[in-house]
Amino acid sequence: MKKIDIYTDGACSGNPGPGGWGVLLRYKGQEKELSGGEIMTTNNRMELTAVIEALKTLKEACHIHLYTDSQYVIKGFNEWLPGWIERGWKNSSKKDVSNVDLWKQLLELTKIHQIKWIWVKGHAGHVENERVDALARQYINQSGMV
Q1: What pLDDT is stored for residue 98 in this prediction?
Q2: 7, 10, 23, 108 — which has fewest CB within 10 A?
Q3: How far apart are CA 5 and CA 79, in angstroms?
Q4: In angstroms, rounded to a whole number, what is the distance separating the alpha carbons of residues 69 and 7?
Q5: What does the alpha-carbon distance between residue 113 and residue 104 come to, in Å, rounded to a whole number?
Q6: What is the pLDDT of residues 51-105, one digit of tens each?
Q7: Which residues, listed in sequence order, are joined to residue 84 by a DSSP beta bridge?
Q8: Buried/exposed 34-61: b ≥16 CB within 10 Å, e otherwise
Q9: Between 100-110 and 43-56, two packed helices, what is the crossing angle to 10 degrees?
Q10: Average pLDDT of the chain?
Q11: What residues contact 64, with CB distance under 8 A and at least 6 apart?
Q12: 81 Cβ contact list (under 8 Å, min separation 6)
């Protein structure tokens, strides 16, 4: 099974507002960058989208170290998701889970992979996290969304 490092980040100018996401995939010393965004979105949607878009690029099952500064993504996947599914995609307050469309996509995409979720502190000098943050923000700025 291939071992891949994935770094992801999402950004928003306003929340909601124009948003971008950035991804860095690293395999055996080779790197690939991805980025994209939406005109009106939230930071959490961009964080999730970054992970989804990264996983969509993989053509086979992989052992992944996935680095993100998003507690929402890590806690959502590792802690909250089982309860949401058990309650029919309702949160503990019995309200609809936010971003359920993206959570369902992420759940489907993760089924074939072995993923170790690793939280990194954002905006703290972590080289790859700063790089994917710059990709996300660059997308917002270059696309003329702000």
Answers
A1: 97
A2: 108
A3: 22
A4: 9
A5: 15
A6: 999 999 999 999 999 999 999 999 999 999 999 999 999 999 999 999 999 999 9
A7: none
A8: bbbbbeebbbbbbbbbbbbbbbeebeee
A9: 30
A10: 95
A11: 3, 4, 5, 6, 113, 114, 115, 116
A12: 103, 107
Tokens, residue 37 = 């965004």
Distances (CA, A) of 127 to 8, 44, 56: 12, 22, 24
pLDDT above 90 coverage of the chain, percent:
91
- Strands of 62-68's sheet, edge to edge? 30-41, 17-27, 2-12, 62-68, 114-119
Would you state the pLDDT for residue 87? 97
Rounding to the nearest 10 degrees, give the CA dihedral for residues 111, 114, 119, 120: -120
pLDDT at 128: 97
Residues with a known catalytic role: 9-10, 47, 69, 123, 133
